[in-house]
Amino acid sequence: QKEVEQNSGPLSVPEGAIASLNCTYSDRGSQSFFWYRQYSGKSPELIMFIYSNGDKEDGRFTAQLNKASQYVSLLIRDSQPSDSATYLCAAGGGSQGNLIFGKGTKLSVKP
Amino acid sequence: GAGVSQSPRYKVAKRGQDVALRCDPISGHVSLFWYQQALGQGPEFLTYFQNEAQLDKSGLPSDRFFAERPEGSVSTLKIQRTQQEDSAVYLCASRQGAIYNEQFFGPGTRLTVL
User: Fold this and answer.
1) Distant-in-sequence, close-in-space partners of B35: CB < 8 Å, separation ≥ 6
2) CB-CB neighbors (< 8 A) of B102 in chain A
3) Is residue A22 packed enough to be buried (19+ CB in 10 Å), middle (13-18) or exposed (0-12)?
4) B102, A34: Cβ pair inside 8 Å?
5) Cβ of B15: how many Cβ atoms within 10 Å?
6) Per-residue pLDDT for chain B (114 aa), expressed as one digit of tens each?
C-alpha cells in the first residue's frame, strides 16, 4: 500500500515565525512531490513541487526533498494569518502519476 | 476557460438515487483525474483519463462508480444507487503533458447522500 504520512496537527505558530511541515512517503518509486494548500471548504491549490533532492525556494516557501530518507518538508517563512489552512503533501505515483495524498496538516498562524 | 470547472457544486441525493458529476478541464490538458475527499482526509485517487481513454480505474470503490470522457474533454463521474458512504467531495484535476507535471484542481462537487 503506497502511503504518505503527515502529522495532522494542528500546528500553531505566531505571525512572522517559520512554519515547518513534514511528510514521509512509502513508495521509493515516487519521482515527484507536491505541496497543496487547502482552505476550509475549498479545493487544493498548488504551492510548490519538487523533483530533485535538496531545497527549492519560491518566495516565502521552501520545499525540501530527501529521497534516501523518503522525506519531504515545506518551510513557510514570515508566516501570515492568511497562511492558516490545511497543507496537503502528495507524491506522484503509478504509471500515470496519479497523486497519493497525506491526510494534511492544519496550520494556524496567530496574529 | 481559465481553470477546471465542476458542476454541480453541491448535490443532495436520497439513498438509492443515481447522480452524475461533471468536470470541464483546462483547455488542452490531456490528462484528467477524479479524486474523492472525505471529511478530514486527503483526496484519494479514483480514476484517470488520457484523452478519451480511461487508463486507470483502480481507485473506483465499487462497480456503482462509472466515469467517462467520450470526446477527450469533458468528463462525467456517475454513481449509481448512491449510499451514505458515498458522501464526500469529488474533485476533478487536469494536467498538461508529462506525468511529473502538477495537477490543477477544480472547485469540487460536495455530494451528500441522505
Assistant:
1) A99, A101, B43, B44, B45, B46, B90, B91, B92, B93
2) 34, 46, 49
3) middle
4) yes
5) 11
6) 589 999 999 999 999 999 999 999 999 999 999 999 999 999 999 999 999 999 999 999 999 999 999 999 999 999 999 999 999 999 999 998 767 788 999 999 999 999
Residues composing chain B: 114
Helix (H, G, I), strand (E, B) or coil at B84: helix
Q: What are phi and psi of A18, to 5 degrees?
A: -95, 130
Q: How far is CA B92 from the centre of its chain?
A: 4
- For residue B19, the distance in angstroms to the closest alpha carbon of chain A comes to 21
Contact residues, chain B, for A99 at CB < 8 Å = 33, 35, 43, 45, 93, 103
The pLDDT tens digits along chain A (111 residues) read: 789 999 888 999 999 999 999 999 999 989 899 999 999 999 999 999 999 999 999 999 999 999 999 999 999 999 999 999 999 999 987 677 789 999 999 999 999
Is the peptide bond preceding residue B25 cis, with omega within 30 degrees of 0?
A: no
C-alpha cell at position B89: 467531495
- Closest residue to B107, CB basis, from A34, A43, A101: A43
Distance of CA B1 to the CA centre of its chain: 18
The backbone torsions φ and ψ at residue B75, rounded to the nearest 5 degrees and listed phi first, read: -125, 150
The shortest C-alpha distance from B85 to chain A (Å) reads: 18
